[in-house]
Amino acid sequence: MTSTPATSPAGIEHRPEEHQAWEIGRGVHGDPFSVLGRFGVEGGAIVRVYRPGAHSATVIDGAGKELATLEPFGPESFFSGYVPGLDGTAPYRIRYSHGGGAGWDEEDPYRFGPILGDQDVYLIAEGSHYRLYEKLGAHPATMDGTPGVAFAVWAPNARRVSVVGHFNSWDGRRSVMRKRHECGVWELFVPHLGRGEVYKFEVIGPDGNIQPLKADPVGFLQETAPSTASIVDGLVEHEWKDDEFRSQSAEWQNREKPISIYEVHLGSWRRGPDNAVLDYDDLAGELVAYVKDMGFTHVEFLPVSEHPFYGSWGYQPIGLYAPSSRWGSPEAFARLVDALHQEGIGVLLDWVPGHFPTDVHGLVRFDGTAIYEHPDPRRGFHKDWNTLIYDYGRPQVRNFLVANGMYWLDQFHIDGLRVDAVASMLYLDYSRNHGEWEPNIYGGRENLEAIAFLKDANERIGEYFPRATTHAEESTAFPDVSKPTYAGGLGFHFKWNMGWMHDTLHYMQEDPVNRRYHHHHMTFGMVYAYSENFVLPLSHDEVVYGKGSLLGKMPGDDWQKFANLRAYFGFMWSHPGKKLLFMGGEFGQWAEWNHDQSLDWHLLDQPNHAGVQRLVRDLNTMYREIPALHQLDCDPAGFEWVDTANVEESVIAFLRKDRGGRQVLIVSNFTPIPRHGYRVGVSKSGTWTERLNTDAEIYGGSNVGNMGGKTAEDESVHGRPYSISLTLPPLATVVMVHEG
């Protein structure tokens, strides 16, 4: 079809080139703002609109007065015309009608200016926009006095990007976005939308093919699985009441402070009647009260970022910027964090910048090319998890991830990030056979780009959020993980001590009669204890995939299982290193963790389980109150072996010390045989009082112990001038505090 060009009464041509109109009609024009909207000319403006389903279009002013009727041109529902007197700033709307005469008024989204400022464009292009979440995503906003939503998404190689939803009948021709070529971001202000609007992005790749509809990578709320659309929500709105807490939280960067972490999966910690999931507000009551009562200093949430597969526990996230809607709104999650803070409890969040799933609505080939994932499968695909690995060498991807970590610290007042699967990021040959990986530029196996990303993330977090801490789940001997970047380290504050966990659990699973052959598993951790700032983790990973619960791992009959677990907890809480315990372990759950149901809280009706819970509560109290048990966790001056040689009787004894020279003696008997008159060397005279005994009757033990304390005698043992004669209970740890 060929149309005869028309002119306005003023002699001004208002029609575009015909091929442009047809490209708009087919939804393939990549620069709609060059065709649609208002174009100022002498005496007025040219206005062009495209509205599928409309049979006529009239421009009206802010008062509803009709200014000019636009002419149809090219494809059906494309209109163009000259509007006299319409200057470049005056508001206008379009009055459309169907063929039957019914009409409606709409704002013209193409009359609004750019969303990103010049500085935003520059920083995004450079990969250094650390408040990216304030610009990308979907933000309720007002432009030129008109309320609506500002959408912006990074898709540098796309030919065309549209925002689609119920508001435009999911028609990708109607809300085509403006491309900011300098930084690869597409943007559009859609008038008269608000919070709660469901949307996705329709992307045409560089090959001209339409991609599967994409959720917003910087969306702040998503539909509940199995639905996958993003929901307009904007940045969280919450009136925080944690100023006093936050003014003190920087103390947790001090390695001398007690840190005892309760690791929680929000969907299965506790459930309501009929297995109903508790939401964030329910948890703000029940979980907060429980953690405070148990004496933990922190909770650590398994990832709350939106994830399509519930069985991934959040470790395969799609919506990195969206708290999972399974448990409520972002505002409700903020209320949960605030409630914890008001009770003096810090909040750590598992963060997953190492990989993402291949769900088609996610980041995979987002603009028709590999922009988030590394394009080389040798570096961009995880064989173990069937997930994709971020391209850490691309500045905009690093920016996306670093800004995401900072988003949680900023918008939700999170106190620290535990970074998942760091080892998988550090090594190019992680879980790969020979020939399946490519060496770095120096011929080594280290992923230099991932290392640079981790350092950058830790430096930026330290710069912008100096109170926050970062924790690495790193399972290899990679050096200096928890050393500052200026000293050549990765910049984390703490590292999980996976070696200690594996060694000690291996020992505890042995029958006591065989422990003499594995004594070194309980002592080897001190060989490298001060190479990093360690957290001792008994995490969720140790109670899934057929590994059984902590209690279930213990050998012997039921009495011995409980006694072994109590002795192990006593050893752990006294050992150098911060503490982490996954939910359910604190009361000796029998069953392996099941993310589809509540913990077995009914077990607390049984004395043995209630006793383990009481022990953990008392261990937390003791750990916080006695500086010798935490002050020098990361300093060899705070620890001294007393007896590691008694392999035959499986007894271990050591001292913990504080900066003032005060001492605590810990003795563990890992056999079921009580030992009376067991002499242990000490370096200080005076009285040593039993502060805690895991065999106490209140914990479910046999109540063998050292009532009234012990006085040091002038009898040299273990190379020390004094000694005390102790009763060592069966399968127990005793803590003796020097009272001098």
Automatic annotation (TrEMBL):
<dbReference type="InterPro" id="IPR044143">
    <property type="entry name" value="GlgB_N_E_set_prok"/>
</dbReference>
<dbReference type="GO" id="GO:0043169">
    <property type="term" value="F:cation binding"/>
</dbReference>
<dbReference type="Pfam" id="PF22019">
    <property type="entry name" value="GlgB_N"/>
</dbReference>
<dbReference type="InterPro" id="IPR014756">
    <property type="entry name" value="Ig_E-set"/>
</dbReference>
<dbReference type="Pfam" id="PF02922">
    <property type="entry name" value="CBM_48"/>
</dbReference>
<comment type="pathway">
    <text>Glycan biosynthesis; glycogen biosynthesis.</text>
</comment>
<dbReference type="InterPro" id="IPR013783">
    <property type="entry name" value="Ig-like_fold"/>
</dbReference>
<dbReference type="InterPro" id="IPR004193">
    <property type="entry name" value="Glyco_hydro_13_N"/>
</dbReference>
<comment type="subunit">
    <text>Monomer.</text>
</comment>
<feature type="domain" description="Glycosyl hydrolase family 13 catalytic">
    <location>
        <begin position="263"/>
        <end position="662"/>
    </location>
</feature>
<dbReference type="Pfam" id="PF02806">
    <property type="entry name" value="Alpha-amylase_C"/>
</dbReference>
<keyword id="KW-0321">Glycogen metabolism</keyword>
<dbReference type="GO" id="GO:0003844">
    <property type="term" value="F:1,4-alpha-glucan branching enzyme activity"/>
</dbReference>
<keyword id="KW-0320">Glycogen biosynthesis</keyword>
<keyword id="KW-0328">Glycosyltransferase</keyword>
<feature type="active site" description="Nucleophile">
    <location>
        <position position="420"/>
    </location>
</feature>
<feature type="active site" description="Proton donor">
    <location>
        <position position="473"/>
    </location>
</feature>
<dbReference type="InterPro" id="IPR006048">
    <property type="entry name" value="A-amylase/branching_C"/>
</dbReference>
<dbReference type="InterPro" id="IPR054169">
    <property type="entry name" value="GlgB_N"/>
</dbReference>
<dbReference type="InterPro" id="IPR006047">
    <property type="entry name" value="GH13_cat_dom"/>
</dbReference>
<keyword id="KW-0808">Transferase</keyword>
<dbReference type="InterPro" id="IPR017853">
    <property type="entry name" value="GH"/>
</dbReference>
<protein>
    <recommendedName>
        <fullName>1,4-alpha-glucan branching enzyme GlgB</fullName>
        <ecNumber>2.4.1.18</ecNumber>
    </recommendedName>
</protein>
<dbReference type="InterPro" id="IPR006407">
    <property type="entry name" value="GlgB"/>
</dbReference>
<dbReference type="GO" id="GO:0005978">
    <property type="term" value="P:glycogen biosynthetic process"/>
</dbReference>
<dbReference type="InterPro" id="IPR037439">
    <property type="entry name" value="Branching_enzy"/>
</dbReference>
<comment type="similarity">
    <text>Belongs to the glycosyl hydrolase 13 family. GlgB subfamily.</text>
</comment>
<dbReference type="InterPro" id="IPR013780">
    <property type="entry name" value="Glyco_hydro_b"/>
</dbReference>
<keyword id="KW-0119">Carbohydrate metabolism</keyword>
<dbReference type="GO" id="GO:0005829">
    <property type="term" value="C:cytosol"/>
</dbReference>
<comment type="function">
    <text>Catalyzes the formation of the alpha-1,6-glucosidic linkages in glycogen by scission of a 1,4-alpha-linked oligosaccharide from growing alpha-1,4-glucan chains and the subsequent attachment of the oligosaccharide to the alpha-1,6 position.</text>
</comment>
<dbReference type="GO" id="GO:0004553">
    <property type="term" value="F:hydrolase activity, hydrolyzing O-glycosyl compounds"/>
</dbReference>
